[in-house]
Specification:
Pfam families: Methyltransf_7. Keywords: Magnesium, Metal-binding, Methyltransferase, Transferase. One of its GO terms (molecular function) is methyltransferase activity. The protein folds into two domains: 3-126, no CATH class; 131-481, Rossmann fold, CATH 3.40.50. Helices cover 51% and strands 18% of the residues. The protein has helices spanning 14-18, 29-39, 56-60, 67-90, 95-113, 129-145, 162-186, 202-221, 241-259, 306-327, 350-363, 369-373, 384-394, 411-416, 422-445, 450-468; strands spanning 42-53, 116-126, 190-196, 228-235, 266-272, 285-291, 328-340, 397-408, 471-481. The structure holds S-adenosylmethionine (SAM). Residues 146-148, 161, 164, 168, 196-199, 203, 234-236, 239, 274-276, 291-293, 296, 298, 436 line the site of S-adenosylmethionine. The site of S-adenosylmethionine has 24 residues, from helix 7 and strand 4.
Length: 483
């Protein structure tokens, strides 16, 4: 018998009692099992039933209470649960009397009717979770080793990211257009943006100051107070966030000196985690930026054939769009720059040259062939058609622009005009690529193989580029969240 079934309500109006239904139902184990089976999403592992006398929890606590005391505790406990709903029907003034009466008889009643609490304990697993967990494990393995070289030393990404900086400056007009339209449409008091895959170095904070400048200038033109900017800098947990933290005070001082009070406040926060899952609350962002990041896949699965990579890219990019669609407000924008290719089985990616040199090292017995066979770089350079198809099928975003910028592998160095000859340019490309690839490559082939690998790479990279007419293909995509 359920403890609520015992009702001692003789003094209340009978109508009140007739109209009262306690919203409480104690199912049998068969009833519970049937619902689980019919619903179908869970596998039932354990179903246990624990019976206990109404007062056995008090006896077990061994607090030395006699029969009277135990009845008082039961009455107080039941009152703590039931008083709000009972008093809303029968009045607060009836409660003392009710629970006095209840206390006076509850243990006699329990003994006479052999009443017990019947506790059902159910242990369930969501079906299909094994695959998700297996995939998640693969993602976590990649997340652990995928990061750029940290710090600000000679091999760091911070000082070897001129290529990415050059591309960002080429993309700036598209960034400006996207941010301006977003600002005019939504006029946020505080624009909330995220830079996904921010890494560490000059590029990390320059996108923040670019956005601040664009909204500051636009608000001035519109005679509006400058909006503040909240920027979330995201990367994988292995990223060197400490270098970002250390650079913040001088960044804020520089902003203050250069832009002064004519620009809004800027608040910078870091967020560690993969953007292939949710990172932000729903409807919380106005703008998402990501540059030179989305060709890094969440995982790879052998066999390492183009088809498998394309499928993984489609899966990952779809998940990326779905997560951002949740996080962006309607009308929110994204500007994404991706290193792409002209055709999906393009053999001309710069990583191919690294692959060729790793192969040479295997042939010379410097690297075990098994290590190379087991290695799949989680990297895929999609064509603009492949990107557009995912955006269309996923359906949450309107595509405004998809532009393609091509550049020779060394043209960013020529453009920077730092007077480097052919030899120097090859060395710079090798150092820059090493800053990106060293953590993941050395986790597979060993730190000791890295000098040799990048020496070999440097020796052939420009010949290879010229012979094969290789170019970096930069895809720049500007999107608005529908709705
Ligand atoms: C080449 S860097 C680009 C950094 C910066 N956006 C720039 O333009 O200089 C790529 C960055 O993407 C990050 N990244 C790769 N996959 C990621 C993921 N799933 N979630 C978050 N960051 C990721 C890497 O750790 C790396 O720091």
């Amino acid at each position: 018998m359920d403890i609520f079934t015992y009702r001692g309500f003789p003094l209340c109006e009978s109508e009140k009692l007739d109209n009262f239904n306690l919203p409480n139902y104690a199912p049998t184990s068969e009833e519970v099992k049937k619902v689980i089976e019919v619903e179908g999403s869970f596998t039932l592992h354990k179903f246990e039933v624990f019976k206990m006398d109404w007062d056995s929890y008090i006896k077990k606590a061994n607090i030395g209470l006699g029969r009277q005391g135990r009845a008082t505790v039961i009455a107080t406990d039941i009152r703590a649960m039931g008083e709000p709903i009972l008093s809303s029907q029968f009045g607060e003034e009836a409660m003392d009397d009710l629970f006095q009466r209840f206390k006076a008889v509850v243990l006699d009643h329990m003994e006479a009717e052999k009443c017990e609490h019947i506790n059902l304990v159910i242990s369930l697993t969501k079906k299909g979770t094994y695959t998700i967990q297996k995939n998640r494990r693969k993602m976590v393995e990649i997340e652990k080793v995928l990061h750029m070289n940290g710090g600000d030393g000679n091999t760091s990404y911070a000082i070897n990211s001129l290529l990415q900086r050059t591309v960002a400056s080429m993309v700036k007009p598209i960034l400006e257009e996207g941010i301006e339209q977003l600002y005019i449409t939504l006029l946020p008091e505080c624009l909330k943006m995220a830079d996904l895959g921010c890494s560490t170095g000059f590029n990390t904070l320059s996108v923040v100051s670019d956005v601040l400048e664009i909204i500051g200038t636009k608000s001035k033109m519109l005679n509006l107070p400058p909006p503040s900017l909240q920027a979330f800098l995201n990367d994988l947990p292995g990223n060197d966030f400490n270098t970002i933290f250390r650079s913040l005070p001088s960044f804020y001082t520089k902003l203050e000196n250069e832009k002064g009070s004519s620009f809004g406040h800027c608040f910078i926060t870091t967020v560690a985690g993969s953007f292939y899952v949710r990172l932000f609350p729903s409807n919380s962002l106005h703008f998402v930026h990501s540059s030179y990041v989305l060709m890094w896949l969440s995982m790879t699965s052998p066999p390492a054939v183009v088809d498998a990579y394309l499928k993984q890219f489609e899966k990952d990019f779809t998940m990326f769009l779905k997560c951002r669609a949740e996080e962006l407000v309607p009308g929110g924008r994204m500007v994404l720059t991706i290193l792409g290719s002209i055709k999906s089985d393009d053999p001309l990616s710069i990583w191919e040259v690294v692959g060729l040199k790793l192969n040479d090292m295997v042939l010379e017995g410097l690297i075990e062939s098994e290590k190379l066979d087991n290695f799949n770089l989680p990297w895929f350079a999609p064509t603009s058609e492949e990107v557009k198809k995912v955006i269309e099928v996923e359906g949450s975003f309107t595509l405004h622009k998809c532009e393609v910028f091509k550049m020779d592998w060394d043209s960013y160095i020529k453009k920077a005009n730092i007077g480097l000859e052919r030899q120097g340019r090859a060395a710079k490309i090798a150092t820059d690529l090493r800053a990106v690839g060293e953590p993941i490559l050395s986790s597979q082939f060993g730190e000791e193989a890295m000098d040799d690998l990048f020496q070999r790479f440097k020796a052939v990279v420009l010949d290879h580029m010229e012979a094969e007419k290789c170019e970096h293909i930069n895809l720049v995509i500007s999107l608005t969240k529908k709705g």
